[in-house]
Each structure stands twice: as structure tokens, then as C-alpha cells.
Amino acid sequence: MILKYGGVLTHAGRNQAEELGRYFRNNMYPGEGTGLLRLHSTYRHDLKIYSSDEGRVQMSAAAFAKGLLDLEGQLTPILVSLVSKDSSMLDGLENASSEMEEAKARLNEIITSGIKSVNINPEKPWMVDGAGVHPNASELLPELVKLTKKVTEQVRLLAKDESEELAEASSTGVILPYDQAKALGKTNIDVDRIAAGLPCGSEGFLLMFARWRKLQRDLYNERKERFDITQIPDVYDSCKYDLLHNAHLNLEGLDELFKVAQLLADGVIPNEYGINPKQKLKIGSKIARRLLGKILIDLRNTREEAISVAELKSAQDINPSVPNGGREEIDQRFKSQSKMELAGKGSFTSEKSMDQEDDEDKETKYRLDPKYANVKTPERHVRTRLYFTSESHIHSLMNVLRYCNLDESLQGEDSLVCDSALERLCKTKELDYMSQIVLRLFENTEVALEDPKRFRIEMTFSRGADLSPLEGNDSEAASFHQEHTLPIMGPERLQEVGSCLTLEMMEKMIRQFAMPAEDFPPPSIPQGFSGYFSKSAAVLERLVNLWPFNKH
Questions:
Q1: For the chain, how many helices (H) and strands (E)?
Q2: 21, 11 Cβ separation under 8 angstroms
Q3: pLDDT attached to residue 45
Q4: This prediction's pTM
Q5: Which of 166, 337, 380, 405 has a CA that sits 20 to 30 A from residue 9's CA?
Q6: Cα 278 from chain centroid?
Q7: Which secondary structure element, helix H or strand E, spans residue 385, and what is its range?
Q8: What per-residue confidence (pLDDT) applies to 552?
Q9: Tell me: the pLDDT tens digits for 41-54?
Q10: How far apart are alpha carbons 480 and 15 in whole angstroms?
Q11: CA 278 – CA 95 distance, rounded (Å)
Q12: Between 254-271 and 137-172, two packed helices, what is the crossing angle to 10 degrees?
């Protein structure tokens, strides 16, 4: 599963992430339900969580893990113990910066000049250059600027009052300290702030005004009479945030601004990552190359482990006296698999690197021993890999999955995504907080090991909290608005019901867009600890000696 993070993790974001974790625990593991917790507690659930470098992404990952595993307590210990940071895989757009600039330049030309879409294919509207751009986008731009100015002026007046109060407080020498950590770590709505007519969360009117003033200034350059369409998504995000969290401020014209910004953003956001399918594929393969490679490694490792378990079980069925020897054989296979995986992640030339490889090979792998297991299915083992990343990576990964068949080497192959799902994706403009792509690998044990249909992949997609704050007048919508949250949309299938996408076909279609296993760098000390444990043994020994309980 690969998810998108939002902005600063608000109380609403934390609750949404935890709720989605609970949903996955109860719905994404066939036949288990809350039994996932039993799998996890009996060493039959192999879970790894990866996050990009942003703190808000990592906290979203920790909140999700809290809901998934039904944990208690603060998020920081969960973050430290369960979430690994991998910025090289989940951050950065440098590899595709030139192609993205080219796409944005072409998109700016389409929007500002009023060029209508050409070569429209009614059966496949997603194949058009600039699909989704509003036909009257050039006429909506001036309206967007006018409404942005109107909202900014209202926030300026509110900020002026706050500035005067701060000036008066500073003259008396009484200024309360600003506790940013406390402000950003809130788990509930600050009812007192809202009752006092202040912005929700950690933002004051001065900061809110700075946010809107920057948007107004960057959106339109009056001296050059030039629009900057890259600011449209930011205007849309600010409108949505204030409608959701600051509706009590009653900013006039904010709802109108949101509607105009949404019409424009629906055309800008998906086309920033490629103006047509072939360009989307090119940009997506560059941004998500490392992530795609890691996903293939995950899938292959899961398949090899399943095959090893199946062969062991078959040997035990044929000769019941084999269990001990079979167990040793399977353990040796897992060790060999780990060795091959490490070797595939980079060659080691120095003596130090060889030592690191040996240490990795000696790492203890906790697995359930069937001889002592008090469970019905001791051989069952589930792997879960979670990747928390940005909207750019979600768009890029999805573009590779749906357009990989357009590559010259794959001419004649069908898309991994069915036509009905392609149409739905074309209509899906925004990937909001907790958008997710889920790849599930199933094993059909009734099929021979060498049959490609033994391992099939099911792909689902959710566009996250993609609802307008202006939608819904029922009691459920009122409840969500009161909690400052929007519901996360349920998963949608990307394949036809009854279809069979084999792992072999999946590998064939995306292998050339993914980083090869041998190009992955060798394992290293986690970044969070590299500064403290560069000489880990000596430092740890000193820490143990300093620990007060060591003396008793």
C-alpha cells in the first residue's frame, strides 16, 4: 500500500489516519478481521512501514500504524519503533524536473490562451492533451484573482486587530510563549479558540494573512500581467482547509473562490505530471523508479517464501518423518534468500562492507515454530509493506500502472487497468489526504507451483478524503463538519471482476520502469541513529554503564 500525506498533521488528519488503519485491519486481510492482531502477536505477520523525510508524513504513518495494530499511547514511540525513513525512495522530483517543467509550460499555454482540446476520442477521453482542463479556463483566471483578493482583504482586517493586541501586550511585557510542539500535536479540536473566534489549530490571524497574501501575490503578477497557474492547487488547498477548519470565521466569498479554484485545479493537478499519457508514463517512471523496484522486490520475496513453504509442506505430506530436516531446509532457503537480496542491493568492495553483510546475514529472524505453535495455521505468514509518500509519487505510480502498455516494447499488450477503471481515473482529478493504491498478492494453493496463475495480484485504489466541504446536508455530513474531517472514500477495483492479473504479467509490464534490484544501495545505519551510534558497540557499552539500574 502506498499512501499520500497531507500538510501539517492536524487533529483531523490524525483521526483520519487512525480510522483508515482500523479499516485496513478489519477489511484488507481475507478471513482474518481482527485476527490480524493474532497473526501479528504470533510472529506470522511481517510488517514494515516506510515514510518520506517530512515529519508530517512520518506522523501520518505512525497514526495509521496505531489504528492498524490497535496500539495505545502517543505517536512518537510508535514512530520510532515502527516507521523507517527512506527519502531517496519516497521524496524528490529531481529526476523528472525538466520533463515536468515542459509539461507545465504546455499546460500554461493551453489554459492562458484558451486553446480547446483537439483530437477528442469519445471512447478514450484520457488520451487527449490536457485532458480535464476546463474549456473556459482562461476566463476563470481573472475571477480567481478577484475572489482571492477579496478573501485576503478580509483576513488582513482580522490580522490587523491581532497585530494591535500583540503590540499592546508587548508594551506591557506580557507575551505568552508559543509552544509549536504542543500546537502541532493536538489530538482534538480546540473548542475555546473556535468559541473565541480564532483560527483552528496552531495558526493565528497573522500567519493566516501571510498565507493568503503570498497566494495573492504569486498567483498574478500585476506589473507583468502574468498568471502563475502552478499556484492554483495552493489556492484550492487553502480554500478547502479554511472551509473545513475555519468555517466559523464566515469569510465572504470563500465558497465561491473554492468552486472556481476547484474547476481550474481539476485540470492543472493531473496534468502537472504529464500533458498526455506518454508524457505521464515518462515522468512517472522517473519519479517512481525506485519505489517500483522496491515493490517488485517485495512481491518476488513473498512469492519465493510461499513456494518454499509449499515445497516443505509437500515433502512433509509425502514423508511424515521429514519435519525436522524439512524445517532446517526451509530455514536455510530463507537465509540464502536474504543473502541474495543483500547481494542484489549493491556490491561490497571494502572489508568493512563485507563485515556489514555478514552481520546482516546473522540477524535474527523471528518466525513462529510450528512445533510449539498453539494455532490452527502455523505455516500461514502474511507480509505487509506500507509506503507513505507524496501526491506526486501517487500520481506517478498510478500513471505507470495504467499507461505502461504504451511503451514501444509492450505494444499489443493490454493495460494493467481495465477501461472502466481508466475512465473513473480520468474523472478523478484530486488525490487527497490518505489516497492509496493497494496491491494484494494472492496464492491459489490448488494450482501447480509452476503455473503462473498460482500467484495473482489484485489492485485497488482510493482517492482519499476527496469530498467537497460544501457537499452534504445530512446528519452524517454535519457530524463530519463538526469534527473538521471528511470521510475517506472506499477502495475501487482497477481490474474487471473475475479477471486474473498474474504476478508474472505484472513483472513483465513494469520491470523496465523499475530500478533493478542490483542497483539498490547496500543497507546502512538508519539516519536517525547514524550520528549517535557511529561507533555503536563502545557507545552502547558506555550508555549501559551510565544507566542507574545497571548498578543494582
A1: 22, 10
A2: no
A3: 86
A4: 0.81
A5: 166
A6: 24
A7: strand 382-389
A8: 44
A9: 878 888 999 999 88
A10: 11
A11: 17
A12: 120
